Amino acid sequence: MILRAILAGLLFAGALNTTTAALAAAASANSPSGTGSSGTARPTDSTRTVRIEVLDDKLVLVHVTVNGTGPHLFLLDTGGASTVVSDTLARQLGLIPAGSHRIDTMSGSRTVGLTRVGGLRFGGETFTGVDVLWMDLANLRARDSRIQGVIGQDLLRTRSFLLDYETRRLTFDPAIPLEGQHLPLDWSDGRPLVRMVGHHTGRGSGAGGGQTSAALRFVIDSGGTHVILFDHSPACPAAQPLVNALRRAAATTMTMRNHGGSRPVMTATVDRLELAEGKALRDVVTALVPMDPEQGRIEDGLLPASLFRAIYFDNRANEVVLRGR
Fold first, then answer.
1. 147 close to 89: Cβ distance less than 8 angstroms
2. Do 309 and 324 contact (CB within 8 A), yes or no?
3. What's the rounded Cα separation, in Å, for the pair 248 and 151?
4. Mean pLDDT of all residues in the chain?
């Protein structure tokens, strides 16, 4: 089966700078009941399904209750390791900062606040004592001013879930597994990776001619809008020949924006991204994003979840199931 794509995303990972005691104190102050623990889920025994919004047919939005207030609109981000509240919402709720956290974005590294909320609920699931980042989400809110936060893999990974773009539904622990392409999951700094092979055929007989292929590791990113390949990543030298070939073929630039910042990048078209034998994405418009060597990412790029009709994250079997468009 051939899937066709003209797509392209980014989030963050970082290093903690706080103390357990400070987080516990913040949880006590930030919880309506005066209690807080370690970010545990209170699971349900049955399948739960909720409606989602999909912004511009790409970004998944869910309604979240924080410390009993809301619902507030959050971005659901499978490519983000951490849950985030906007500085606007943090001030509205009177949250107490308890430390700091370094995050890596396409604009470089920055330090943001860290706190713990007493309770957070979405999709029929309740999480208590949740450590959240506290940051300016101006770029994200420019796309939809209602957005007040981000749900990351620190919460999502605790359950298996089906993200269905076609029916606009999020289902935890679905009773009927999704039919589609099964791929094993790897993990990098709390973000899910899948392996693919990229192919690009250069035009002409010179240095840019011939086919260049590379094994690639992509983060599946529901918080991203573009396929991304990292340029000059010190941790991913095997992908660099493909990136070099794409850079030679690049004819356009675009401005990439996310809640970490914005920057101009080159774009080029990857001929094929192979999921498995006989299954591939074709003619994939890809952003080439220079990598800061200090970030130390091991993935080669980001793959928007919106490329597919539905995605099932089976966190018990540690695999993902992709249903193509």
1. no
2. yes
3. 37
4. 78
Q: How far apart, in whole angstroms, are the C-alpha atoms of residue 6 and residue 36?
A: 44
Please choose, from the candidates 262, 266, 260, the residue with its C-alpha nearest in 3D space to the C-alpha of residue 289.
266
Q: How far is CA 73 from CA 63, 78, 86, in A?
A: 5, 16, 11
Residue 101 tokens read as 């956290």
Look at the chain and count its residues: 325
Cβ-based neighbours of 27, under 8 Å, separated by 6 or more:
35, 36, 37, 116, 117, 118, 129
Longest dimension (CA), the chain: 70
Is residue 5, in this structure, part of any structural domain at all?
no
Range of the domain at 221: 181-324
Q: pTM of this prediction?
A: 0.80
CATH number of the domain bearing residue 54: 2.40.70.10
| Secondary structure class of 217 (helix, strand, coil) | strand
Tell me the C-alpha distance between 147 and 46, whole Å. Answer: 29
CB 222 within 8 A of CB 156: no
d(CA 307, CA 311): 10
In a domain, 4, yes or no: no
Of 113, 138, 172, which residue constitutes the final position of a domain? 172
Going by C-alpha positions, the residue among 113, 98, 12, 59 that lies closest to residue 226 is 59
**239: amino acid identity, one letter:** A
Instruction: Give strand ranges (E) for 98-209.
Output: 99-105, 108-122, 125-135, 147-151, 161-164, 169-172, 181-184, 186-188, 191-202
Does residue 168 belong to any structural domain of this protein?
A: yes
CA 27 to chain centre: 26
Distance CA(76)–CA(302), nearest Å, equals 15
Query: Residue 292 — φ and ψ, nearest 5°?
Result: -75, 120
17 shares its domain with 158: yes
Summarised one tens digit per residue, pLDDT across range 221-264 is 999 888 998 887 666 678 888 888 888 887 777 666 655 556 67
Token digits of residue 1: 């089966």
Cα–Cα distance for residue pair 137/140, rounded to 1 Å? 5
